[in-house]
Structures are given as C-alpha cells and as structure tokens.
Design brief:
Layout (H helix, E strand, L loop, with lengths): L5 H11 L2 E2 L26 H13 L18 H4 L8 H10 L8 H15 L29 H11 L3 H11 L4 E3 L19 E3 L10 H8 L16 H6 L5 H8 L1 H16 L17 E11 L2 E11 L9 E6 L5 E5 L1 E8 L4 E13 L6 E6 L2 E3 L6 E2 L4 E4 L3 E4 L4 E9 L6 E9 L5 E7 L7 E2 L4 E9 L13 E7 L2 E4 L15
Parallel strand pairs: 4-13
Antiparallel strand pairs: 1-8, 2-3, 4-5, 5-9, 6-7, 6-10, 8-9, 10-11, 10-12, 13-15, 14-15, 15-19, 16-17, 16-20, 18-19, 20-21
The chain binds protoporphyrin IX containing FE.
GO molecular function: heme binding; metal ion binding; peroxidase activity
Enzyme class: oxidoreductase
Family: Belongs to the peroxidase family.
Length: 510
C-alpha cells in the first residue's frame, strides 16, 4: 500500500514494530515463550497458549450457513466466558492484555487475531498472513465451541459449521495443541493435581514442548510416547484428540510427523483461515506486509510564521550503521525543494529477532507560506520515494502552537486549528477516540465552529478555535487519547499530522 493510510499504517505498526524502538508492546508478553504473567512461575502455563486458544474459541461460534459468529471479540463478554465451553481464565487474562492495544484502526478482534499469529510466529512457528478490519461484536455470540467429552461426529459437525473439513479439523486441532495443555484447576476430572514444583498450575501438556511451535504433537502421538491428556487420559470419554487424530486412520497425523515443513505450512494456512473467519459482511484488509520505508509520528505544527516539522522514518530489514547517511528532502507549494539531514534514533526487531529495522528522526522548520506537499528520503544517495509517488504530507490543516490548557480539573483547553488559505473546508472537526460501553474504540467528533471573521495567523493560515474538555481520561480501559483534526474538503476528509493531548499544552495566559 501507499503511505499514508491511517488504518493500514496502524495495522502495520502493531504487526511489525514489536521490540525495541517504538515497540507496540505486545510481543513482550511472549518473551520468553513460556512467560505467563498471571501467576508465579514455573506455572506450566503460557500467554502464548492462552492467546491461541482465545482466538480459536472466539472464532468457533461461526456459522457458515447464516454468516453469524466468528472472530469478533465476543469472547470478551463475561456471559460468553462463563459458558462451560469456555472453561478457564485464559480468555479473561488475554482480553485484559489486549484491550489496551486496540484503537480506532485496530479492533479488539484484530488484536486477538494478531495475538494468535504472534504467539505462533514468535515461538518457533511459520509466518502467518495477517489482515485487519475485523469488527468487534456488541454482544455475545451463540454458543458453539467443541468440548472434549463430545463424540467424533459432533466435532466433525462443529468444524463443518465453522467452515472446516474433517481433514482440516485434524490439522487445526494439532496446530493449536502444539501449545499449552489441560489444567488441573479447569478440568480436575482430566488432569490430577501434579504436585510438581516445576509445573505449579498442574498443566498436562499436549506435547513435550508446550510453548514452542513444532510437530512434536504429531511425532509423539505417532510414536506412542505422547502424554497428551486428550489422547491418553484415564477417562476415554474426554479423549477428543485421540478420536480426532485417528479419525482418518492417522494419515494426517502421520504426514505431520514425517514432515515438520508440511506441518508448518499446513498450520500457516489453517491458522490464517481461522483468524480470517469473521461474521458475514465484514471486509478484511489486504494482507499486511512491512513497508520497506515508512514514516512514523509525522508532526506539522504552526508556530508563528513557520511550521515545525518532525517525525521519524523506519527502514525495514536494516540494522544500525554509523556510516549510513539518511537525509530528508521535501517539496513545497511554490516549486522549491529542501533538504535536511536525519539522526539515527533507534533500532527495532520483530518475530523474535527474525527482522530488524533502523530508525532515523528528523526535525526542521519550514516557512509557513511555502509549506510542504511531499517528501522523500535519500539513503546513501539512493532515492526512496515509494517508486516515484513520494510521501505526501498535507499542510492544509494543522494545530497551532498557540493552543493552550485552560484548566487541569476538569481537563479543558483551547485548541487553535490553523486552516491554510484557499483550502475552503466545508467542515472542520476534532476527533477523539474513546471507548463505548462495551469497550469498543469509537471516535467522537466535535465540530470546530467557522469563525465569523477569519483570524489571520500569518500570510498563509487563519485560526479557528474551540474550547474542549477531555472527558475520556481514565474512563474504563481507555488510555488518555489525543485530539486529532480533520477537515472535509470537497467531500474528502483530510487529517492533520499529529494529535494533541490537552494535558501537555502550556497554560493559557489570556
Ligand atoms: C474438538 C476441538 C477441541 C477441543 C475439544 C479442545 C479442547 C481443549 C481443552 C479441554 C483444553 C484445556 C483448556 C484448559 O485446561 O484451560 C484445550 C487447550 C488448548 N486448546 Fe484446544 N480444543 C480443541 C480445538 C482447538 C483448536 C482448533 C485450537 C487452535 C487452533 C486449540 C487451541 C488450544 C490451546 C492453545 C490450548 C492450551 C491453552 C493453555 O494451555 O492455556 N484447541 N483445548
């Protein structure tokens, strides 16, 4: 895709800015892969296992016939979590971690999908295609998750309702059950108290590598050494993995045992399909791939007769290199081209170090009248401009530095919006992201009134002002969020680069 695209940019960041500079903070819960943040270690549990099971149980309500259910974060509702089919506290744990990572561009359901993908990828598994655009349910879905005491035919029927064939059922169960196990606390009839100081939560694991993706779930099953509690459990009624794995005469499991590559590629396909199983009508984005050159945190602020321009750029698949020269070049509205050097600002990595990225920061002062239309980067003399498209930077609407804090409690401030002469917006509005009563990120818009008499800020901009209160701080799971400015111009919305938190504004003097 072409930068900027607010939704795809946000999805790309949460997927690929994992560790180090500008970390989005999800992958740390998988470091190391047997980390379990909710009880003392060694617990025998793992965040990674909880996250994969959460994605499956959220999806498993899907009904291909009527399009209902699917991966839509309905698992966050306590009503759904309290059903027998959703036994255990892993769903609540997972949602607690994930809620803070959702935003207006990344739904809670997208985070659930990505959490499962990252657990697999970052813990030894194959790369899995990730799309965004899931829509969070406003209420619980109908029940429909398979349970271990049910017979084979009901499992075949259940997976068919979810959209998977009997062979795919074997695959999906094996792909999931290469992680985690059955807990004594949740299933005391399947797993006894193990009294094991190395496994404090008494989890009987599905294979010997419970926090690592590999085909041991298949090799141990085929070789007869498996300790999988759903295969060799004392009560055969709950040996659902045994019935499922053997349902085709062990052909599928044998193929997985013989080929770790086949197991990995099958799981990459099936798990991608699992997280892309969404209620009918939901339109997913393209597969999110890393942008090789990606601006981030671009800010343009009116400061008297100048524009303060700052931001960063990330170069994918590059490591730090003190000899590299990176400069930023931009075009203005009056035919000029300008150059500024950048400074190395950090490095990041993703997928347990499989990928790295090098970051550079820029900071410059532009003449407000000349403004800016687009930018490009020069890396050791080579032009990076999205294959000639350039990186568009809009200067039509932005914050003015004259914005100020009016009161701390309640938090109120005057936001001065600079509108470029000639832009002629039909509307200007502030947008703030908040959470609705069921924790979905939603955007509240506040119209910025058109001033009766335009107040010139300089030769290029006039100011529109509005006093707003930030009612969002500390509400529910909402982190404090910035106000952003959007202008509707000729039926199209353009959004200012960079948002403004009221709390960080200087106090008003008038
Ligand atoms: C017939 C289908 C399935 C049955 C009956 C089943 C049953 C179970 C049971 C009883 C547990 C133990 C839960 C606990 O003690 O907290 C479990 C755990 C788990 N299941 Fe499944 N499962 C099925 C399919 C799947 C699928 C398709 C996936 C994912 C692709 C999956 C992923 C997991 C994971 C990762 C765990 C470990 C959770 C942890 O250790 O915290 N399961 N499953």
């Amino acid at each position: 895709y072409i930068w900027p695209s607010p939704q795809l940019d946000a999805l790309e960041s949460i997927r690929y800015d994992q560790d180090g500079h500008r970390s989005q903070g999800i992958s740390v819960f998988l470091e190391p892969c047997d980390l379990f943040i909710f009880s003392a270690s060694p617990s025998g549990r793992a965040d990674s296992a909880d996250w994969i099971r959460t994605a499956y149980h959220d999806m498993a309500t899907h009904n291909v016939a009527d399009g209902s259910g699917g991966l839509d974060a309905s698992i966050r509702f306590l009503e759904e979590q309290s059903r027998p089919e959703n036994a255990g506290d892993g769903f609540g744990n997972t949602i607690t971690v994930f809620l803070a990572h959702a935003n207006r561009y990344v739904s809670i359901a997208d985070v659930i999908a990505l959490g499962a993908i990252m657990a697999v990828e970052n813990c030894g598994g194959p790369e899995i295609a990730f799309r965004g655009g899931r829509v969070d349910a406003g209420e619980p879905n109908l029940p429909g998750v398979p349970e271990p005491q049910q017979d084979l035919q009901s499992h075949i029927d259940s997976f068919a309702r979810q959209g998977f064939t009997p062979t795919e059922m074997i695959g999906l169960v094996a792909c999931g059950h290469t992680f985690g196990g059955v807990q004594h606390d949740t299933f005391p009839d399947i797993v006894p108290d193990l009294h094991d100081p190395g496994n404090l939560k008494s989890v009987a694991h599905f294979d010997t590598t419970f926090s690592h993706f590999d085909n041991n779930v298949a090799t141990e099953y085929i070789s007869g050494t498996t300790q999988n509690p759903l295969v060799v459990g004392a009560n055969d009624t709950t040996n659902s993995d045994k019935r499922i794995f053997s349902s085709d005469g062990n052909a599928t499991m044998l193929s997985f045992a013989n080929s770790p590559e086949l197991f990995a590629s099958t799981c990459a396909d099936l798990l991608a399909r699992m997280v892309d199983t969404v209620p009918r009508g939901v339109q997913l984005t393209e597969v999110i791939k890393p942008l090789l050159v990606k601006p981030a945190a671009v800010q343009l602020i009116l400061d008297g007769s100048n524009l303060q321009f700052s931001g960063e750029v990330r170069f994918w698949n590059k490591t730090a290199d003190p000899n590299r020269s990176v400069s930023l070049q931009w075009d203005d509205n009056v035919g000029g081209t300008h150059n500024v050097s950048t400074q190395a600002s950090g490095v990041s990595s993703a997928v347990a170090g499989r990928f790295t990225a090098a970051w550079y920061a820029f900071n410059s002062t532009l003449d407000a009248v000349a403004g800016i239309t687009s930018m490009r980067f020069l890396v050791d003399g080579k032009v990076e401009d999205q294959n000639g498209v350039g990186f568009a930077v809009q200067d039509g609407i932005l914050y003015s530095k004259t914005s100020c804090l009016q009161s701390q409690n309640p938090l109120t401030g005057r936001l001065d919006v600079a509108v470029r002469n000639g832009l002629n917006p039909t509307h200007v509005f502030l947008e703030q992201e908040v959470r609705d009563s069921v924790n979905r990120p939603v955007v509240v818009s506040i119209e910025v009134p058109r001033p009766a008499q335009a107040l010139a800020a300089n030769d290029a901009y006039s100011l529109w002002s509005i006093t707003v209160a930030d009612n969002n701080v500390g509400v529910g799971s909402s982190p404090a969020t910035a106000f952003t400015i959007t202008a509707e111009v000729g039926g199209v919305n353009i959004t200012a680069n960079g948002g403004q938190f009221l709390a960080t504004l200087p106090a008003c003097t008038t």
